[in-house]
Amino acid sequence: MADPKGFLKVKRQNSGYRPVGERVQDYAEVELMLPDDARQLQASRCMTCGVPFCHWACPVGSLIPEWQDKLHQGDWKAAYEILQQTNPFPEFTGRLCPAPCESGCVLGINDDPVTIRENEHAIIERAFQEGYVRPQPPKARTGKTVAVIGSGPAGLACAAELNWMGHSVVLYEAADAVGGFLRYGVPDFKMEKSVIDRRVDILLEEGLVIKTGVAVGEDISGHELLTSYDAVCLAIGARKARDLTIEGRELRGVHQAVDYLEQQNRVVRGERIPINQRITAVGKHVVVIGGGDTGSDCVGTANRQGAIRVTQIELLPEPPGKRPPHEPWPLWARLYKTSSSHEEGCERLFSVSTRKFMAGKGRVGRLAATRVDWQEDNGRYRMVEIHGSEFELETDLVLLAMGFEHVVHEGLVDEMGLALSPRGNIAVDENYMTSVDGVFSAGDAIRGASLVVWAIQEGQEAARKIDAYLGG
Q1: Which of helix, strand or coil describes residue 266?
Q2: Percent with pLDDT over 70 in the chain
Q3: Residue 245, pLDDT above cutoff 80
Q4: Is 138 inside a domain boundary?
């Protein structure tokens, strides 16, 4: 521990964002980077706890105090070498992870926690800049073959790990480029897609075989996979979007958020979308239904497209600003958060239930909603509509960002006859194996929609179980 009193002398300093007036004019990443000396001071706030709960709270078990200490000393290379021991893609988590590690930071009991996520982001970017990140192909091949289906964070982590072990891995992706939801769900202002591309280039140099534009279950059957490979891992995510089946759902101008975000990401990439297929917020009153990260991404995208007004509706109550008693340290508390997108302009409404969409000029023109109260009943909460609280909102574009139900059953899951969990996801045992011998699964496909860091952790763990299955 280079400075045992660092946490007493240095206050938390966030990186911050580019000015609102500047960043809403483009799709470049909004988060800034602190100068090296300021970043090293932030690392000095780590107390190198004897029992580091940040390590406990991190799904990939990041050795946080160890690399924080190296960062504070200015040894960026050593910091990177420790960081990558447990996390193969810190450039993803450093940008997108909500940092459960910071909720577990001991300093956070009575002060602001260490800027763990931002420090991680700085380390990996410095590592790429200095050339510390280099291809590490396996020294020998085992002769075993594995197919990994889906190139989101879980699939990438699983495929990379198995490849480093020496197995011959083929990664299949139905889309035209690698990344899954990272590429077509996350806006560029949160993570530019060159971040994915540079990592993919390294994986290719390490010998990973990637096949894009191949929809397994359509272009190639599950049976073909089972006869062609020694093992298969399904990392296909939980892509069954939750819908709102109310009156007027069929009106023009009501879209799923994932369709909206994917289209804009393709436009940013340079694709031309026919004007009659464009989903755009320019000159419109936009309502985003859903208060999570996907909803926030829609808010930021709508502001950049030139929306007149953006309103975000959430069915649940407004979260508290401080830890509630039932979510004490070091648990990850659900707190009220203002994202960079919210700062750019958005009215946020909580405890609101949407009742119907109404037409106007051949498309959606208004929506009817009511305020609700959440009442506790024998330890469970139930929603009760507040009489007389009905209201309407003008809207030309409605984006449904209410999360995802479960893995898509149609296609590969049904074809293979895989057993499902009570929530409709792929059921696996303690070895990440499905009900079909030799077929494994990981990430959102078994967990449901969750954090990028959990997807990476499960992809790695599934790879270890597959390696054991193949004989280690």
Answers
A1: helix
A2: 100
A3: yes
A4: no
